[in-house]
Amino acid sequence: MKKHNFSAGPSILPQEVLLKASEAIMDLENSGLSLIEISHRSKAFVDIMENARALALELLGLEGKGYKALFLQGGASTQFLMVALNLLEKRAGYLNTGAWSQKAIKEAQKLDDIYEVASSENANFNYIPKGYDIPSDYDYFHCTSNNTIFGTQIKQFPKCDIPMVCDMSSDIFSRSLDFSQFDLIYAGAQKNMGPAGTTLVVIKEDILGKVSRDIPSIMDYKIHIKQGSMFNTPPVFAVYTSMLTLEWLKGLGGIAGIEKENEKKARLMYSEIDLNPLFKGFAAKEDRSNMNATFNLVNDNLKDTFETMLKEAGISGVNGHRSVGGYRASMYNALPLDSVKALVEVMSELESKA
Ligand SMILES: *Cc1c(COP(=O)(O)O)cnc(C)c1O
After folding, report:
1. Which residue among 90, 185, 287, 305 has the highest number of C-beta atoms inside a 10 angstrom radius?
2. Rounded distance, CA 280 to CA 12, Å?
Protein backbone atom coordinates (compact mmCIF):
# COMPACT_ATOMS: atom_id res chain seq x y z
CA MET A 1 0.00 0.00 0.00
CA LYS A 2 1.24 3.49 -0.86
CA LYS A 3 2.23 5.36 2.29
CA HIS A 4 1.49 8.94 3.23
CA ASN A 5 4.88 10.39 2.35
CA PHE A 6 5.87 13.45 4.40
CA SER A 7 9.58 13.12 3.63
CA ALA A 8 11.52 16.41 3.64
CA GLY A 9 13.62 15.48 0.61
CA PRO A 10 13.99 13.59 -1.63
CA SER A 11 10.25 13.64 -1.37
CA ILE A 12 6.90 12.74 -2.83
CA LEU A 13 6.26 13.02 -6.57
CA PRO A 14 2.87 12.78 -8.29
CA GLN A 15 1.87 9.15 -8.97
CA GLU A 16 1.24 9.88 -12.65
CA VAL A 17 4.74 11.35 -12.96
CA LEU A 18 6.27 8.23 -11.40
CA LEU A 19 4.31 6.07 -13.81
CA LYS A 20 5.34 8.04 -16.92
CA ALA A 21 8.95 8.21 -15.76
CA SER A 22 9.06 4.47 -15.23
CA GLU A 23 7.59 3.88 -18.70
CA ALA A 24 10.25 6.14 -20.23
CA ILE A 25 12.96 4.10 -18.54
CA MET A 26 11.79 1.11 -20.57
CA ASP A 27 10.74 2.87 -23.76
CA LEU A 28 10.80 6.62 -24.36
CA GLU A 29 7.64 7.64 -26.20
CA ASN A 30 7.55 4.45 -28.31
CA SER A 31 11.03 5.08 -29.69
CA GLY A 32 12.20 1.56 -28.89
CA LEU A 33 14.93 3.07 -26.70
CA SER A 34 15.17 3.89 -23.03
CA LEU A 35 15.35 7.49 -21.88
CA ILE A 36 18.59 6.67 -20.08
CA GLU A 37 20.33 4.98 -23.01
CA ILE A 38 19.98 7.65 -25.70
CA SER A 39 22.37 10.48 -26.52
CA HIS A 40 21.72 13.72 -24.71
CA ARG A 41 22.38 15.34 -28.09
CA SER A 42 19.57 13.38 -29.75
CA LYS A 43 16.57 15.39 -30.92
CA ALA A 44 14.40 13.51 -28.44
CA PHE A 45 16.43 14.65 -25.46
CA VAL A 46 17.20 18.16 -26.73
CA ASP A 47 13.42 18.64 -27.04
CA ILE A 48 12.95 17.42 -23.45
CA MET A 49 15.58 19.83 -22.14
CA GLU A 50 14.12 22.76 -24.09
CA ASN A 51 10.61 21.93 -22.95
CA ALA A 52 11.71 21.70 -19.31
CA ARG A 53 13.53 25.03 -19.49
CA ALA A 54 10.59 26.75 -21.18
CA LEU A 55 8.04 25.31 -18.73
CA ALA A 56 10.05 26.52 -15.74
CA LEU A 57 10.07 30.10 -17.06
CA GLU A 58 6.41 29.91 -18.09
CA LEU A 59 5.23 28.68 -14.69
CA LEU A 60 7.24 31.38 -12.91
CA GLY A 61 5.83 34.05 -15.25
CA LEU A 62 9.32 34.98 -16.42
CA GLU A 63 9.08 34.37 -20.16
CA GLY A 64 10.38 37.20 -22.31
CA LYS A 65 11.77 39.08 -19.32
CA GLY A 66 15.47 38.48 -19.86
CA TYR A 67 15.70 35.29 -17.81
CA LYS A 68 17.26 31.94 -18.69
CA ALA A 69 16.53 28.61 -17.03
CA LEU A 70 19.25 25.99 -16.57
CA PHE A 71 19.19 22.44 -15.25
CA LEU A 72 22.57 21.91 -13.61
CA GLN A 73 24.19 19.29 -11.41
CA GLY A 74 25.79 19.29 -7.98
CA GLY A 75 22.63 20.16 -6.05
CA ALA A 76 21.74 23.45 -4.45
CA SER A 77 24.96 23.06 -2.46
CA THR A 78 27.01 23.71 -5.60
CA GLN A 79 25.00 26.90 -6.14
CA PHE A 80 26.26 28.21 -2.79
CA LEU A 81 29.70 28.47 -4.40
CA MET A 82 28.63 29.08 -7.99
CA VAL A 83 26.58 32.16 -7.10
CA ALA A 84 29.60 33.68 -5.40
CA LEU A 85 32.00 32.77 -8.22
CA ASN A 86 29.74 34.46 -10.76
CA LEU A 87 28.53 37.49 -8.80
CA LEU A 88 30.84 38.28 -5.91
CA GLU A 89 33.40 40.97 -6.61
CA LYS A 90 33.70 43.01 -3.42
CA ARG A 91 31.04 42.21 -0.89
CA ALA A 92 27.67 40.52 -0.62
CA GLY A 93 24.89 40.60 1.98
CA TYR A 94 23.34 37.38 3.31
CA LEU A 95 20.25 36.84 5.40
CA ASN A 96 20.93 34.06 7.89
CA THR A 97 17.75 32.07 8.51
CA GLY A 98 19.17 28.65 9.24
CA ALA A 99 21.39 25.76 8.27
CA TRP A 100 21.10 26.21 4.50
CA SER A 101 21.76 29.96 4.69
CA GLN A 102 24.80 29.25 6.85
CA LYS A 103 26.15 26.81 4.31
CA ALA A 104 25.66 29.37 1.54
CA ILE A 105 27.52 31.96 3.64
CA LYS A 106 30.35 29.54 4.37
CA GLU A 107 31.01 28.85 0.69
CA ALA A 108 30.85 32.50 -0.37
CA GLN A 109 33.24 33.38 2.45
CA LYS A 110 35.89 31.27 0.78
CA LEU A 111 36.01 33.95 -1.92
CA ASP A 112 35.44 37.19 -0.10
CA ASP A 113 33.95 39.09 2.77
CA ILE A 114 30.31 38.34 3.53
CA TYR A 115 28.07 40.63 5.51
CA GLU A 116 25.24 39.07 7.48
CA VAL A 117 22.42 41.59 7.13
CA ALA A 118 20.41 39.84 9.86
CA SER A 119 20.17 36.49 11.63
CA SER A 120 17.67 34.56 13.71
CA GLU A 121 20.29 32.28 15.20
CA ASN A 122 19.61 33.72 18.69
CA ALA A 123 16.30 31.80 18.71
CA ASN A 124 17.45 28.62 16.97
CA PHE A 125 16.07 30.08 13.72
CA ASN A 126 12.42 29.84 14.72
CA TYR A 127 11.56 33.16 13.04
CA ILE A 128 12.43 35.29 9.99
CA PRO A 129 14.29 38.55 10.75
CA LYS A 130 12.61 41.70 9.45
CA GLY A 131 13.37 45.39 9.10
CA TYR A 132 17.05 45.07 8.20
CA ASP A 133 18.90 47.22 5.67
CA ILE A 134 20.58 45.93 2.55
CA PRO A 135 23.55 48.13 1.59
CA SER A 136 22.97 49.41 -1.94
CA ASP A 137 26.64 49.21 -2.93
CA TYR A 138 26.94 45.46 -2.45
CA ASP A 139 27.18 43.01 -5.33
CA TYR A 140 24.07 41.07 -4.34
CA PHE A 141 21.75 40.02 -1.52
CA HIS A 142 21.14 36.32 -0.80
CA CYS A 143 18.23 34.78 1.09
CA THR A 144 16.58 31.38 1.60
CA SER A 145 12.84 31.56 0.89
CA ASN A 146 11.86 28.49 2.89
CA ASN A 147 13.85 27.01 5.73
CA THR A 148 13.23 23.32 5.28
CA ILE A 149 14.72 22.29 8.63
CA PHE A 150 13.16 24.93 10.89
CA GLY A 151 9.82 25.32 9.12
CA THR A 152 9.95 29.06 8.50
CA GLN A 153 9.21 30.86 5.25
CA ILE A 154 9.75 34.42 4.08
CA LYS A 155 6.30 35.88 3.41
CA GLN A 156 7.42 39.37 2.41
CA PHE A 157 10.70 39.80 0.58
CA PRO A 158 12.72 42.94 1.29
CA LYS A 159 12.97 45.85 -1.10
CA CYS A 160 16.31 45.41 -2.71
CA ASP A 161 18.21 47.77 -5.05
CA ILE A 162 20.91 45.22 -5.80
CA PRO A 163 20.54 41.80 -7.45
CA MET A 164 18.49 39.50 -5.22
CA VAL A 165 19.51 35.83 -5.15
CA CYS A 166 17.19 33.29 -3.56
CA ASP A 167 17.59 29.64 -2.62
CA MET A 168 14.06 28.31 -3.24
CA SER A 169 14.94 24.63 -2.97
CA SER A 170 12.01 23.73 -0.76
CA ASP A 171 9.22 26.01 -1.94
CA ILE A 172 9.75 26.65 -5.64
CA PHE A 173 6.51 26.42 -7.65
CA SER A 174 4.45 26.27 -4.43
CA ARG A 175 3.08 29.81 -4.12
CA SER A 176 2.44 32.89 -6.23
CA LEU A 177 5.14 35.52 -5.98
CA ASP A 178 6.37 38.25 -8.25
CA PHE A 179 9.33 36.18 -9.36
CA SER A 180 10.74 39.13 -11.32
CA GLN A 181 11.84 40.68 -8.01
CA PHE A 182 14.60 38.03 -8.00
CA ASP A 183 17.61 38.12 -10.29
CA LEU A 184 18.73 34.59 -9.60
CA ILE A 185 16.68 31.72 -8.20
CA TYR A 186 18.03 28.24 -7.57
CA ALA A 187 16.41 25.07 -6.33
CA GLY A 188 17.53 21.49 -5.96
CA ALA A 189 14.91 19.38 -7.74
CA GLN A 190 14.34 16.81 -5.02
CA LYS A 191 11.87 18.74 -2.88
CA ASN A 192 9.22 20.18 -5.10
CA MET A 193 10.17 19.34 -8.66
CA GLY A 194 11.69 15.95 -9.34
CA PRO A 195 14.22 13.35 -8.30
CA ALA A 196 17.62 14.29 -6.90
CA GLY A 197 20.31 14.96 -9.47
CA THR A 198 19.46 18.28 -11.01
CA THR A 199 19.16 21.86 -9.81
CA LEU A 200 17.03 24.48 -11.49
CA VAL A 201 18.77 27.83 -11.86
CA VAL A 202 16.82 30.80 -13.22
CA ILE A 203 18.99 33.83 -13.97
CA LYS A 204 18.40 37.31 -15.25
CA GLU A 205 21.12 37.38 -17.85
CA ASP A 206 22.12 41.01 -17.42
CA ILE A 207 23.55 40.43 -13.93
CA LEU A 208 26.31 38.22 -15.37
CA GLY A 209 29.74 39.17 -16.67
CA LYS A 210 30.51 41.73 -13.96
CA VAL A 211 33.21 39.98 -11.95
CA SER A 212 36.91 40.09 -12.77
CA ARG A 213 37.84 36.51 -11.86
CA ASP A 214 38.39 33.80 -14.45
CA ILE A 215 35.48 31.48 -13.63
CA PRO A 216 36.12 27.74 -14.16
CA SER A 217 34.02 26.68 -17.19
CA ILE A 218 31.70 24.28 -15.42
CA MET A 219 30.97 26.91 -12.77
CA ASP A 220 30.26 29.67 -15.30
CA TYR A 221 26.56 30.45 -15.82
CA LYS A 222 27.34 32.22 -19.11
CA ILE A 223 28.84 29.05 -20.54
CA HIS A 224 25.85 26.94 -19.43
CA ILE A 225 23.48 29.47 -21.01
CA LYS A 226 25.45 29.52 -24.24
CA GLN A 227 25.41 25.71 -24.38
CA GLY A 228 21.68 25.44 -23.76
CA SER A 229 22.24 23.72 -20.40
CA MET A 230 24.23 21.01 -22.21
CA PHE A 231 27.81 22.03 -21.47
CA ASN A 232 28.37 18.47 -20.34
CA THR A 233 26.08 15.45 -20.19
CA PRO A 234 23.04 16.53 -18.20
CA PRO A 235 21.30 14.23 -15.71
CA VAL A 236 18.76 13.05 -18.27
CA PHE A 237 16.44 11.15 -15.94
CA ALA A 238 16.22 13.97 -13.40
CA VAL A 239 15.56 16.55 -16.12
CA TYR A 240 12.92 14.40 -17.82
CA THR A 241 11.11 13.65 -14.56
CA SER A 242 11.24 17.33 -13.57
CA MET A 243 9.70 18.17 -16.94
CA LEU A 244 6.88 15.71 -16.25
CA THR A 245 6.23 17.33 -12.87
CA LEU A 246 6.15 20.79 -14.43
CA GLU A 247 3.65 19.53 -17.05
CA TRP A 248 1.56 18.04 -14.24
CA LEU A 249 1.64 21.37 -12.42
CA LYS A 250 0.64 23.27 -15.54
CA GLY A 251 -2.31 20.92 -15.93
CA LEU A 252 -3.46 21.83 -12.41
CA GLY A 253 -3.56 25.53 -13.25
CA GLY A 254 0.11 26.26 -12.54
CA ILE A 255 1.35 27.86 -9.34
CA ALA A 256 -1.95 29.66 -8.64
CA GLY A 257 -3.76 26.32 -8.80
CA ILE A 258 -1.44 24.40 -6.50
CA GLU A 259 -1.14 27.34 -4.10
CA LYS A 260 -4.80 26.95 -3.10
CA GLU A 261 -4.23 23.27 -2.30
CA ASN A 262 -1.07 24.06 -0.37
CA GLU A 263 -2.93 26.66 1.70
CA LYS A 264 -5.66 24.16 2.54
CA LYS A 265 -3.11 21.59 3.66
CA ALA A 266 -1.17 24.09 5.77
CA ARG A 267 -4.33 25.47 7.41
CA LEU A 268 -5.48 22.01 8.38
CA MET A 269 -2.06 21.04 9.73
CA TYR A 270 -1.47 24.20 11.76
CA SER A 271 -4.97 24.34 13.17
CA GLU A 272 -4.43 20.86 14.61
CA ILE A 273 -1.04 21.87 16.02
CA ASP A 274 -2.61 24.95 17.65
CA LEU A 275 -5.82 23.36 18.94
CA ASN A 276 -4.41 20.08 20.17
CA PRO A 277 -2.92 20.62 23.66
CA LEU A 278 -0.51 17.70 23.21
CA PHE A 279 1.45 19.53 20.52
CA LYS A 280 3.37 22.77 20.21
CA GLY A 281 4.49 24.43 16.97
CA PHE A 282 8.17 25.33 16.63
CA ALA A 283 8.16 28.32 14.26
CA ALA A 284 6.80 31.79 15.01
CA LYS A 285 3.21 31.85 13.74
CA GLU A 286 3.61 34.69 11.25
CA ASP A 287 6.62 33.00 9.66
CA ARG A 288 5.28 29.48 9.43
CA SER A 289 6.15 27.56 6.30
CA ASN A 290 3.36 26.18 4.16
CA MET A 291 5.77 23.46 3.03
CA ASN A 292 7.38 22.16 6.24
CA ALA A 293 5.40 22.24 9.49
CA THR A 294 7.62 21.71 12.55
CA PHE A 295 6.13 20.72 15.89
CA ASN A 296 6.87 18.91 19.13
CA LEU A 297 5.03 16.78 21.62
CA VAL A 298 4.52 18.74 24.83
CA ASN A 299 4.97 15.56 26.83
CA ASP A 300 7.71 13.25 25.57
CA ASN A 301 6.14 10.29 27.40
CA LEU A 302 3.69 10.00 24.53
CA LYS A 303 6.45 9.60 21.94
CA ASP A 304 6.29 5.82 21.57
CA THR A 305 2.49 5.71 21.47
CA PHE A 306 2.35 8.51 18.88
CA GLU A 307 4.98 6.94 16.68
CA THR A 308 3.33 3.53 16.78
CA MET A 309 0.05 5.13 15.74
CA LEU A 310 1.76 6.98 12.89
CA LYS A 311 3.26 3.75 11.67
CA GLU A 312 -0.07 1.94 11.81
CA ALA A 313 -1.71 4.73 9.80
CA GLY A 314 0.93 4.37 7.05
CA ILE A 315 2.43 7.78 7.76
CA SER A 316 6.07 8.05 6.79
CA GLY A 317 8.81 10.67 7.03
CA VAL A 318 7.56 12.94 9.82
CA ASN A 319 10.59 12.78 12.10
CA GLY A 320 12.10 16.21 12.69
CA HIS A 321 15.62 17.19 11.72
CA ARG A 322 18.17 16.47 14.46
CA SER A 323 18.81 20.20 15.03
CA VAL A 324 15.16 20.87 15.91
CA GLY A 325 13.89 17.50 17.16
CA GLY A 326 10.22 16.63 17.32
CA TYR A 327 8.31 16.27 14.08
CA ARG A 328 8.23 17.82 10.65
CA ALA A 329 5.44 17.34 8.18
CA SER A 330 6.64 18.25 4.71
CA MET A 331 3.65 19.14 2.55
CA TYR A 332 5.13 19.61 -0.89
CA ASN A 333 3.02 20.13 -4.03
CA ALA A 334 2.53 16.43 -4.72
CA LEU A 335 1.30 15.56 -1.22
CA PRO A 336 -2.48 15.05 -1.31
CA LEU A 337 -4.76 16.79 1.20
CA ASP A 338 -5.87 13.31 2.28
CA SER A 339 -2.40 12.60 3.64
CA VAL A 340 -2.61 15.68 5.86
CA LYS A 341 -6.08 14.55 6.96
CA ALA A 342 -4.62 11.16 7.91
CA LEU A 343 -1.88 12.77 10.00
CA VAL A 344 -4.27 15.18 11.71
CA GLU A 345 -6.56 12.26 12.52
CA VAL A 346 -3.76 10.42 14.29
CA MET A 347 -2.91 13.57 16.27
CA SER A 348 -6.48 14.04 17.45
CA GLU A 349 -6.83 10.35 18.20
CA LEU A 350 -3.79 10.65 20.44
CA GLU A 351 -5.51 13.50 22.25
CA SER A 352 -8.63 11.43 22.89
CA LYS A 353 -6.49 8.57 24.20
CA ALA A 354 -4.29 10.65 26.47
C1 LIG B 1 17.75 20.56 0.64
C2 LIG B 1 18.18 21.98 0.57
C3 LIG B 1 19.44 22.35 0.06
C4 LIG B 1 20.50 21.36 -0.34
O5 LIG B 1 20.23 20.79 -1.54
P6 LIG B 1 21.25 19.75 -2.23
O7 LIG B 1 20.60 19.58 -3.56
O8 LIG B 1 21.27 18.53 -1.38
O9 LIG B 1 22.57 20.39 -2.32
C10 LIG B 1 19.73 23.69 -0.01
N11 LIG B 1 18.85 24.63 0.39
C12 LIG B 1 17.63 24.31 0.87
C13 LIG B 1 16.70 25.39 1.28
C14 LIG B 1 17.26 22.98 0.99
O15 LIG B 1 16.06 22.66 1.47
Report:
1. 185
2. 25
At 354 the pLDDT is 80
Residue among 100, 220, 248, 287 flagged as catalytic:
100
CB 199, CB 78: distance < 8 Å: yes
Number of domains in the chain: 2
Output the pLDDT for position 328.
98
Query: Which of 181, 216, 251 is a domain's end point?
Result: 251
pLDDT at 41: 96
Catalytic residue check, 167: yes
Q: What is the DSSP letter of 9?
A: S
* Residue 267: φ, ψ to 5°: -60, -45
Binding-site members for L-glutamate are 41
Asked if residue 74 has its Cβ within 6 Å of ligand 1, the reply is no
Crossing angle for the helix pair 337-353 and 254-275, nearest 10 degrees?
A: 0
Which ligand 1 atom sits nearest the alpha carbon of residue 76? 9
Residue 2 resides in a domain: no
Q: Are 331 and 266 in contact (CB under 8 A)?
A: yes
Distance, CA of 281 to CA of 248 (rounded, Å): 32
90: annotated active-site residue: no
Q: Which residues of the chain have pLDDT under 70?
A: none
Q: Is residue 20 part of a domain?
A: yes
Measured from the Cα of 79, ligand 1's closest atom is: 9
Residue numbering of the annotated binding site? 41, 76-77, 100, 148, 167, 190, 232-233
Q: What's the predicted TM-score (pTM) here?
A: 0.98
pLDDT at 113: 84
- Told to judge if 191 belongs to the known catalytic residues of this protein, a careful annotator would answer yes
Whole-angstrom distance, CA of residue 83 vs CA of residue 72: 13
Q: Give the end of a domain, one of 234, 251, 268.
A: 251
